[in-house]
Amino acid sequence: MSRHALISGASIAGPALAHQLNAQGWRTTCVERTPRLRDEGQNIDIRGAGREVLRRMGIEDAVREAGTGEVGLRFVDDAGAVVAEFPAGENDTGGGTAEVEILRGELSRILYERTCDRTDYRFDEQIRELTDHGDHVTARLASGDVLDADVVVVAEGTRSRTRALVMPEAEVAELGLQIAHLTIPRASDDDLWWRWHSAPGSRSTSLRPDNRGTTRAMLAFLSDVRGLEQLDRAGQATILRRTYADVGWQAPRALAALDDAPLYFDAVAQVRLPSWSTGRTVLLGDAAWATGPFGLGTSLALVGAYILAGELSGGRDHGTALARYEELMRPFVDKAQDVKPAALRAMNPRSAAGLRVQRTVLGALGSLSSVFGGLVEKLSSPPSDAIDLPDYPVAA
User: What CATH number has the domain bearing residue 40?
Assistant: First the structure.
């Protein structure tokens, strides 16, 4: 009888894991609490080892074809004039904009379409109870169904609900960065550049292209207030309107679209855990190691799924396999989580004087030893290739 993996989460990490386990002969069931695949969210990049995983999965061409076409990052002033620009990278790792940029929903769709014939997807469903019997795990779902699995994988987001069933002590470290993602109508002067405008008060507005005929807007600000992501949509809209009431450039356009635009509000945070598994249950993706800003989450999710599937299918007992997965991934994750508070403050200046310094440094491409220069370097070349991918045999 083939081995069975129950996966919770159908965004990126979960379907990527299902893809690799299916290739090794596993049965997979994937539960997702939302009623459908979500196409909300923003542009994500895939770099370094994550890009290599796409190649090994055989989906790199499909991902490239579904890309946003973004050509680079431009910082602009209040009038929209370019302060500095950073063209897209021309390799697997370089550039503020990666060579491969894709909407989160598009990548999720590609992974789903390549696994839905072999994976039992159950939407509007979630795990309510887990019992580890030593040789298998029994899961009771919200619908009342009971499933037995050889391994349970929690591949959810930073604020995973299922994680609390197995690791109730997990803590989420808030970074104070609040981000609202909106999909707004495309304007005639929107182009293929990611345009970023900063305003005093640690507030920024950015616009990015997509491949759907719309534009992705992002309103990001630093705040000491916690729990904004838990407000309802009306409450979040009120916060955004008050926060951006005096901000120029394209902020009024984004605020004008608040009533009708798809909105996703996120409080950026990190998850740091001493272990990612207990018994036959294991965490994957942001539920295990949310890194915060700088866009490495997708590459980490793909790499983690590839390694977890390879270790589980390598003929070792589950305890050894899960320990090996963590041994290989932990150094990679530690480097990605190296986010300094000073870097966030430099990217989001609080005062008008700080904003002038930021624009001066950007315009002059100042010393990379400075705080902001170090951040530019981090944005341009995050440690996405800081892992050697093992070669795992694929079952016939």
Answer: 3.50.50.60
Cα–Cα distance list, 74 to 49, 183, 197, 330 (Å): 26, 20, 9, 33
CA 277 to chain centre: 21
Nearest Cα to 17, choosing from 305, 393, 325, 390? Answer: 305
Q: Does pLDDT of 140 surpass 60?
A: yes
- 222 within some domain: no
Contact criterion met (CB below 8 Å) for 377 and 368: yes
In a domain, 202, yes or no: no
Task: Tell whether the model's pLDDT for residue 385 goes beyond 70.
Answer: no
Tokens of 247: 């901000």
Q: Which two tokens stand for residue 375?
A: 């951040």
Both tokens of 141, joined, read 């779902």
Give the C-alpha separation, 104 to 384, whole Å.
18
Who has greater pLDDT, 307 or 373?
307
pTM of the model: 0.90
Token match 């932990």: residue? 330
CB-based burial, 242-260: b 16+ in 10 Å, e otherwise = ebbeebebbbebbbebbee
Distance CA 304, CA 156 (A): 13
Per the structure, the complete domain to which residue 299 belongs is given by 4-69+99-171+271-336
Number of domains in the chain: 1
Does residue 57 lie in a domain region?
yes
pLDDT tens digits, one per residue of 317-354: 999 999 999 999 999 998 888 876 677 777 888 999 98
- State how far the Cα of 233 lies from the Cα of 259, in Å rounded to an integer: 9
